[in-house]
Design brief:
By secondary structure, the chain is an alpha/beta fold. It is about 40% helix and about 20% strand. It has 26 helices and 21 strands. The chain has a 7-stranded parallel beta sheet with strand order 11-12-10-13-14-9-15, with helices on both faces. Strand 5 and strand 6 form a beta hairpin. The protein is globular, with a radius of gyration of 31 Å. The two termini are about 15 Å apart. About 40% of the residues are buried.
Length: about 700
């Protein structure tokens, strides 16, 4: 049960005064869903307006926000009521005068707010225009009572179209009024050492900043709230992990018969990193407790083969395994790559996607339930209720961050105490491994298989496109295969980007039917056909969106052209580049960019040219972009952080991790007074699933 003291914060914001149906809809758009009072509290200001500068007119600085005490001297409405000319009001003090300018104004409001002869305070940006001081559309026109309520430092919030600062400020005030003093969940000595305020005080300081510095990420109140969020995250992870460790698993000791057959069918030997990862996974599988392990490796480091050999070990022990991929292209590719190896070893492989015909699907489901399929490869179609295994013991989730934790656990529920291995080809910085995968053991592949050539990476301004096309023509004559990546499917009015379909048509004018096309809005069979033509060499150029970013493997492709490279993040550029250099031929990657480049884009392109080390690139990407973008969480719905920013607060993450482990040792049921307070913390940051785990024992 959620602590009763939190209930006012979990009410919908429609319950706050002043939020009617119209404003409520705008807040729903701002928060992408029905927001709670708590959402407003965590919607912190991103900058401030300093209204403390209150000079006389003669001393007032130009082009800055000032608050002036004035007397209203004269109204100068436009001559014609239909005129688009502005309404001007002359105001003055003993040192000078200023014209207030109102375009398309409500005349009645101006006359009422600024009666001639009255004393008023006007706040806004003061400018010199045509030799005269003016303030266009003052932010505030106040009488004495209004001035008393004006915050000297005004918070500024992110908005959505139609929503105004005043709406958010008033709603935040009403939300703060619902916030009680909560029991303290921080260790008292740690809090005192950091000189951090309490939780309620920290939120009050953020929404009522005493200076512009108060809302900076390193201010005591923001650090306090960031730590709270990180602690909730880490505590939830250690509780879930401890719960999984308590659940008895099943020991699967393979005989090695099938694995040896697979290895002997390979044209190469495993790398040392693959051998080490495989022994870690097999050691977990042999334990009588559930495995939850992350296998992360750089592009092309051979994760899929490690997963296949691990699945073979479970089949040797008499059970079934499943592998889930995020897209149909990738699921089919895994199936096609594994099939010859499985046939050599006598392993029965099945494929299940959302596109299978009914008869084919029913046949697969029947074979699976009878135990006639040893390993099932599929997309999220594997989650469906009708999918029943005879004895699923091991599940592999590929590109884990594209699935939520819930989906990961749902796959685990398809059998009895299923062991889970999750894989990612996005090398993840150490801090993010803690954040998103703190509930897992980690194996890492840093080596690439023998024979892989380095990729020659170059950058070229897009206005030299004609040279690029000539170079592609020469490469095609020598039998090369080329990926040509465009960032968008349709031309956008806002972004000056060549649309993928337009680029496809343009390249067809040069190279005819040698050019194929694949993007995310095509129907599945059309996508597969386009990939198939490219794999067979029937087309030599594949114009694509980032749909081919992860896992697609065509060893004959040796040239990667990324158009508008400045619009991509580093991790994504690295993933795309990793689609070439997969065979023994020399490969190259060309980053086409639109000049002039901003500082961040320049840094990205320079790092791409310097390094092929995905782990170094991931650390740089975190520094340049923040954690949500790296893991794709902005797009995939995995909860990123609302307050913590790992590029600033990374040191707090390690402290939160240690704190969470200490709490687990001392108070595993969160039954002490601090434990009760920590339960409230978990609810506040949406980590209450961990409390359900506690209740489940």
């Amino acid at each position: 049960m959620r602590p009763a003291i939190l209930n006012p914060l979990f009410a919908e914001i429609a319950s706050l005064p002043g939020i009617g149906p119209k404003t409520g809809k705008l807040f729903e758009r701002l928060f992408s869903g029905a927001p709670l009072v708590l959402d407003l509290l965590f919607h912190l200001p991103h900058k401030t307006i300093d209204r403390r500068n209150r000079p006389r007119i003669k001393d007032a600085p130009r082009d800055e926000i000032v608050t002036l005490e004035v007397r209203v001297a004269e109204h100068r409405p436009p001559q014609n009521t239909r005129s688009k000319a502005p309404y001007r009001v002359l105001v003055e003090d003993e040192t000078g005068d200023v014209l207030l300018i109102f375009f398309l104004a409500n005349h009645g409001w101006i006359e009422k707010s600024l009666p001639i002869g009255a004393k008023r305070w006007v706040s806004g940006r003061l400018e010199l225009w045509d030799g005269h001081l003016q303030m266009v559309h003052p932010d505030r026109v106040l009488d004495e009572e209004g001035l008393a309520r004006l915050p000297p430092i005004e918070p500024v919030y992110f908005l959505t179209e139609g929503l105004h600062q005043r709406n958010v400020q008033k709603a935040a005030e009403a939300a703060l009024a619902r916030l009680s003093d909560l029991p303290e969940w921080l260790d008292p000595a740690f809090q005192a050492q950091r000189k951090w305020p309490g939780f309620r005080q920290a939120l009050l300081e953020q929404h009522h900043p005493s200076s512009p510095r108060a809302i900076e990420p390193t201010s005591p109140s923001r650090m306090r709230l960031a730590y709270d969020e990180l602690l909730a995250n880490q505590l939830a992870l250690v509780l879930v992990r401890a719960h999984m460790r308590q659940q008895s698993g099943r020991a699967h000791q393979g005989t090695g018969i099938l694995s040896t057959k697979i290895e002997s069918a390979l044209p190469f030997t495993l790398t040392q990193a693959q051998i080490k990862a495989l022994s870690e996974i097999r050691a977990d599988l042999a334990q009588p407790r559930r495995m939850l392990r992350l296998l992360q490796g750089d592009v092309g480091s051979g994760k899929t083969l490690v997963a296949l050999l691990a699945m073979a070990s479970v089949v040797e022990a008499g059970s079934q395994a499943a592998m889930m991929a995020p897209t149909e292209i990738l699921a089919r590719q895994h199936f096609e790559r594994m099939l010859p190896l499985c046939e050599q070893a006598g392993l029965r492989l099945g494929l299940l996607t959302g596109r299978d015909k009914a008869a084919e699907r029913n046949k697969t489901l029947a074979a699976l339930a009878q135990g006639e399929i040893d390993i099932l490869i599929g997309t999220h179609a594997i989650f469906q209720e009708k999918v029943v295994f005879k004895d699923l013991a091991f599940a592999v989730v590929d590109e884990q961050h594209r699935f939520g934790v819930h989906q990961r656990l749902a796959l685990g529920d398809k059998g009895e105490n299923v062991d889970i291995l999750v894989m990612t080809a996005t090398p993840i910085p150490r801090t993010l491994v803690l954040t998103y995968f703190g509930d897992m053991d980690v194996s890492t592949l840093r080596e690439k298989p023998a024979g892989r050539q380095p990729i020659d990476t170059r950058a070229l301004p897009i206005d030299r496109l004609d040279e690029m096309i000539e170079a592609v023509g020469r490469a095609l004559a020598n039998g090369a295969r080329v990926y040509w990546i465009c960032p968008l499917v349709e031309e956008s009015e806002d972004l000056d980007i060549s649309a993928v379909e337009e680029r496809h048509e343009m390249l067809m004018q040069f190279f005819g039917n040698k050019v194929g096309l694949v993007h995310g809005r095509m129907k599945g069979p059309d996508k597969d056909a386009a990939m198939d033509h490219f794999q067979r060499g029937e087309t030599q150029i594949l114009v694509a969106t980032t749909v081919i970013e992860v896992g697609v493997d065509v060893p004959q492709a040796t040239i990667m052209i990324i158009e508008h490279a400045e619009r991509f993040g580093l991790a994504q550029l690295h993933q795309l580049r990793g689609r070439v250099g997969r065979g023994s031929n020399k490969s190259s990657c060309v980053l086409l960019y639109k000049a002039p480049l901003g500082e961040v884009a320049k840094a990205r392109i320079s790092i791409m040219r310097e390094s092929e080390d995905g782990f170094r690139i991931a650390e740089e990407d975190l520094r340049l972009r923040g954690e949500g973008e790296i893991l794709g969480t902005r797009q995939s719905g995995v909860p990123g952080f609302r307050i913590a920013d790992l590029s600033v607060h990374a040191e707090l993450l390690a402290i939160a991790r240690d704190d969470a482990q200490l709490i687990l040792q001392k108070d595993p049921q969160l039954a002490s007074p601090r434990g009760e307070a920590l339960r409230a913390l978990l609810y506040l940051f949406g980590r209450d699933a961990a409390i359900k785990v506690l209740r489940a024992g």
